[in-house]
Predict the 3D structure of the following.
Amino acid sequence: MTLDWLTNGFGHLQLDIVGFLAILGEASVRANAQVSSLSYLALLPRLLPAPQALIRTTRPENLKPDTGKVIGARSGGIRDYVNHIAHLLHSREPLDAYSVRCERITKPNREATVSAKTFGPLAGVELLGTAMSVALLVLSITRNDGFALLTTILLSLLSTLVGVGSRWKLTLMQRRANRRVPKDNIIIKYPHGAFLIVKCDENIARELYWHPEECNYVFGDTVYRLISLVGTLMLMFGVICLGNSTLYLQIGFAASYMILNVAYWIVAALPAQWHWDLSCYEVEREDYQGGEKHDSFTLALWKAIAITQSVDWVKNGQIAPVSEAWKLWVEKAGEVVEFEEEKEELAGLGRDGTDSLEKRGVRPLPQWDAEQALTDYLNPSARGLNV
């Protein structure tokens, strides 16, 4: 009798462990759920850890934005966030605090668009899940385990059903007007005091910065809710069948879900850029005198002003602190860049060694002691005595 109790107890323990492994890893699966459903590989029947993470009552209409303030130097447009695709494009090499970087973005093929990577880490784990399904399907047949066979079919087709319901297309806003618009400088100010200046045309600015990316789903909300209901039932019946399969197959399912959970965790920890195909955009970095890193917000702001040759965006975006000293400093910075506005003056040969800078591919900037100027405005009585 004691032996029967131990055997039954072990069986229930095995069921609990396998069922737990089947629904474990929700955060790892959800981390890349949106980009995963953009790929056709999401339709493959496969084992998927924590499939309940993809069975949602509502679907996101836009991609999640990132923190930062976007300002148009010419247009005057302001956004209090950075669109998801723009963030992916610029965050390949993160900016340190008080750094200033300038990038030029072009799009050679206007018809090309952003998509999920066909061959990438996500594709790898999806194919791994399909391989697990095939292996367990063959094993269930050879071991004559009907419940294991039903479990494999239900849980594998569940991923296909959820993939169909979540299928969507990425839409980036296109300009409808044909009038010619001059190129603009887009300034992104990050919370840690870093600046990113982007040089691009109006079409790219509209796609990346001025309109949120839209998720256009193949099926409407009503159909999706019906799909979610069917998927929930398939998940429940799949777990029930798994509990009634033989110990040999339960061990096989447990091993499969352990491997898949580890794989999805690793993929979730990778940079998001690894899962997106952003090759339609060409990004070229432009180097300026003084390098990217700076010791203070004052120097970083002056560098951004010097590159854009404008202080209007500083006023419109309320970038500088609100005080009389900073107001005078911004006005003086505007006078300096206006005095040096002409490109021939900025790159005049033989002045301050700018000819040697240009030979190294480094663009010169106006010479102005921004830190000393701010110190003088903050302490007018001690002007000339500050070091």
Summary: The CA atoms of residues 41 and 126 lie 7 Å apart. DSSP finds 15 helices and eleven strands in the chain.
